[in-house]
Inverse folding.
């Protein structure tokens, strides 16, 4: 089975830039508020654990005949503002393979790095107004954006190392959707502008955020992420869901035994049944 290795990383840091002049006063103000919220975002998150379930599929000939590759169950921990990924099982079978060595298409950075990379001054992102929409029942402002190659940290890696002919940093563009009330980002998309001749022809991602309880308090966290890429005629897509958010209570409380999905579904059904009684 043919598989490509690709990782998308956005890493940056810096101070707040001035509001964009291309937007009117109200649009600029909302965007500036979103910058501040996003740059403080990772610092506001508590140490927590969650389960990431990644369904991977492929279209080997690029003719629309998609087929499943595998399902990865990953225990994601967010400790001291850093993400750690532990691959628990592949297709339900326990494994000790390192997440970044699992092969195929992989992504990291959903818990802050991508937002930070969009809003730090080093990125010099250019924003344009698109309009209003509703996401998860919330009123959201939508902006187009673009980040030039010389300011980008969008790494596309089609091999074992982040350097050499099979890795590039690409310009990228997309949309960011901002909740009018909380000024938090609810959706972020990114499409790489890949130069001709590079082994990867297309690369894109989408991250959706929503409020979830962690340790009894609500935080805006990723709930779903889609990523896709094209290499020659070969296409691959990942659909990731982030579940079971809970606060990290200490090293002794960590368990990496992923519950059987069937048992989890039965438990939910039983809880729903009890609730109706």
């Amino acid at each position: 089975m043919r598989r490509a290795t690709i990782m998308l990383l956005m890493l940056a840091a810096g101070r707040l830039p001035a509001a964009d002049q291309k937007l009117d006063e109200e649009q600029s103000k909302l965007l500036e508020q979103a910058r501040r919220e996003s740059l403080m975002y990772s610092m506001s998150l508590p140490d927590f654990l969650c389960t990431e379930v990644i369904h991977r599929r492929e279209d080997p000939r690029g003719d629309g005949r998609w087929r499943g590759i595998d399902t990865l169950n990953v225990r994601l921990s967010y400790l001291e503002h850093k993400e750690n990924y532990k691959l628990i099982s592949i297709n339900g079978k326990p494994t000790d393979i390192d997440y970044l060595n699992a092969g195929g298409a992989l992504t990291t950075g959903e818990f802050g790095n991508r937002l930070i990379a969009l809003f730090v001054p080093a990125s010099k992102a250019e924003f344009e107004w698109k309009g209003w929409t509703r996401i998860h029942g919330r009123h959201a402002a939508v902006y187009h954006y673009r980040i030039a190659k010389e300011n980008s940290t969008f790494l596309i890696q089609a091999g074992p190392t982040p350097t050499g002919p099979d890795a590039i940093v690409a310009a990228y563009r997309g949309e960011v959707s901002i909740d009018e009330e909380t000024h938090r980002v609810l959706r972020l998309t990114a499409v790489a502008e890949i130069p001709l001749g590079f082994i990867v022809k297309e690369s894109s991602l989408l991250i959706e955020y929503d409020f979830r309880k962690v340790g009894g308090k609500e935080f805006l966290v990723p709930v779903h992420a889609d990523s896709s890429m094209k290499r020659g005629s070969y296409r691959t897509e990942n659909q990731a869901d982030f579940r079971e958010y809970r606060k990290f209570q200490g090293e002794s409380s960590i368990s990496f035994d992923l519950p059987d999905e069937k048992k989890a579904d039965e438990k939910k059904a039983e809880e729903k049944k009890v609730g109706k009684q």
About this structure: The radius of gyration is 19 Å. The chain is about 15% helix and 45% strand.
